Amino acid sequence: MKTMNRTQMTQMLRRFPGSIVLICAVISVICVQSAAAAQSPQFGPPLGANDGVEYAPRVLRDGGRLVEDTSYDVQNPDLKGNTCFGVAWEKLWHAGQDLYRADGKSTAGAEVSAVADGTVAYANPDLNYPGLVVILEHEAEGGKMFSVYAHLDDNSLQVREGQAVERGDKLGAVLKMAYTGRFPELHPSGDDSHLHFELRRFLNAREIYKNAPDCNGLVAGRGYTHPQRPGEFPSETGGYVDPAEWVAEPGG
Ligand SMILES: [Zn+2]
């Protein structure tokens, strides 16, 4: 197909000024439609629903070097050491978001809220992430969705398994945790309190790991995947999904 160069395009627009309106109209319809698709359905934020504080994944650079990234579907260079199945932690793919206070203050004690109406599918103190884990089951576009809230203070749990919850209900509070990464000089507070938050289409992460031994529970599947990336994990009901595509901003 023959494409127009800039001169030809300018000539065409001079001759047919209405064409630019048509092009804009077509583009805006596409934009509006895709924006609507991305916003539906909207989950609420797991942090910041009731305290007015802004929370976000932590992305830290030192000059041009990426030091830390706690977003979904990334490898975090700040993680040190090897997993019990012989893979460097920094090679694991993060299956969720680690959410911190955006103002840099400690996230310890922050209120953790249900992102949508649902049922408590898991709230059992026998997992140690460290801290407790709560998993909610929701009806969502495309089928069931599970929201996972990890590193909750042991004494903060507000829900029990089987209980119905509504969006915004308090589940617990974030555990106080110390920093254990590779760059303590770039984390002068020594605090690493955060919420690990996941959205996924299945309840039991252990069942999807065919390639990694369990290592007494310290497997990928506890917040990370390897070697596949989170969205590639096939279960009968689907894999992990990107929280950024489903969760509204606080107040949204
Ligand atoms: Zn995490």
Please give a structural write-up.
This protein has 252 residues and is of the alpha+beta class. 12% of the residues lie in helices and 25% in strands. It folds into two domains: 6-38; 55-245, Distorted Sandwich (Glucose Permease (Domain IIA)), CATH 2.70.70.10. It is built from two helices and 14 strands. Strands 1, 5, 7, 8, 9, 10, 12 and 14 form an eight-stranded antiparallel sheet that branches. The longest helix has 21 residues, at 18-38. It is globular. Zinc ion is lined by residues 94, 96, 98, 196, 223.
Q: What layout of secondary structure does this protein have?
A:
Elements: H1 6-15, H2 18-38, E1 55-57, E2 59-62, E3 65-69, E4 93-94, E5 97-101, E6 111-113, E7 118-123, E8 132-140, E9 143-152, E10 164-165, E11 170-173, E12 195-200, E13 224-225, E14 240-241
Antiparallel strand pairs: 1-5, 2-3, 4-13, 5-12, 6-11, 7-8, 7-10, 8-9, 9-12, 12-14
The structure holds zinc ion (ZN).
